[in-house]
Design a protein that fits this description.
heterodimer; A: 10 strands; B: 6-stranded mixed β-sheet; 4-stranded antiparallel β-sheet; 10 strands; globular
Chain lengths: 127, 147
């Protein structure tokens, strides 16, 4: 039986949802921030994604180590492929994870940060 | 108008945009001083609130025109001093905000994420929801005993 933990997906964009496909799974929509009305707190998906911590992997879930993720830019048809490497942390009780995706433009792959228990454990280069 | 404790006020002639400060750490707030201004407490994320990042009730400001004041972000380099509640270390971060003369700036967002509370945090600065500066490159932790 699989054991999972939640991965909360965040979008800091001003407008436009991005869509995420995790390891070949279905598209997940992550809405933009609602701006001034919520102090620009980032948007998040209706349901969190999951990280498999024990058991058999399935499409649409994050795993430890390499994950292939496709991201569709808000307000664009551009799809970027990014590889998110989540380090295994034996002995650590994982309460939850956070994935922040930030776009610089319509062309380049987004910058991202992956957090475990509120600590960043993986991320990409600067803007 | 007198600012509340820790609240940053721009000068009277200044034109500013709000900068929302975010804390992605779990249960650990941090204080930040921006360019020598007053310390601002940025609350932590809360697991009971879907892990949304914490943010102060009042935003900081980015100076777009007029006279700068301590506590405001400016275009170019900004010196931030950060302290968390868990360790006494004062952590310094330079946040370089590029000038965007052709852009109407509605708001900025500054995300701070910690890899450890003794190392300067990673950060991402967004203007109108678009990333314009940051140092999000993260070297994964090396497990003890690995080659």
């Amino acid at each position: 039986m699989a054991t999972t933990t939640n991965v909360y997906l965040f979008n800091g964009a001003e407008s436009g949802a991005y869509q995420l496909m995790i390891n070949g799974g279905n598209k997940v929509t992550v809405p933009a921030t609602a701006g001034d009305s919520v102090n620009w707190v980032p948007g998040t998906s209706t349901s969190p994604a999951t990280l498999l911590t024990d058991g058999t992997t399935a499409e649409g879930q994050f795993n430890f180590n390499a994950n292939q993720v496709q991201v569709q830019h808000p307000n664009s048809t551009t799809i970027s492929s990014i590889s998110i490497n989540i380090p295994d942390t034996p002995g650590v009780n994982i309460d939850a994870c956070q994935l922040y995706v930030f776009f610089t433009n319509y062309v380049n792959p987004p910058t991202w940060l992956f957090l475990v228990n509120g600590f960043v454990v993986a991320g990409t280069a600067s803007a | 108008m007198q600012p509340a404790t820790g609240e940053i006020m721009a000068t009277d002639d200044a034109i500013t945009a709000p900068v929302y400060l975010f804390n992605c750490a779990n249960g650990v707030p941090y204080t930040v001083t921006i360019n020598g201004g007053p310390a601002v407490v940025v609350p932590a994320t809360s697991a009971s609130n879907y892990w949304y990042p914490g943010t102060p009730e009042n935003p900081a400001y980015l100076l777009l025109a007029g006279t700068t004041s301590a506590g405001c972000f400016n275009f170019g380099d900004n010196q931030l001093v950060i302290q968390t509640a868990t360790v006494p270390d004062m952590l310094s971060v330079t946040v370089n905000v590029p000038d965007l003369p052709m852009v109407q700036i509605d708001a900025g967002q500054l995300y701070l994420v910690f890899q450890s509370y003794t190392l300067p945090p990673r950060w991402a600065f967004l203007v109108n929801g678009t990333l314009v500066a940051g140092n999000a490159h993260v070297v994964p932790p090396v497990r003890k005993g690995s080659a």
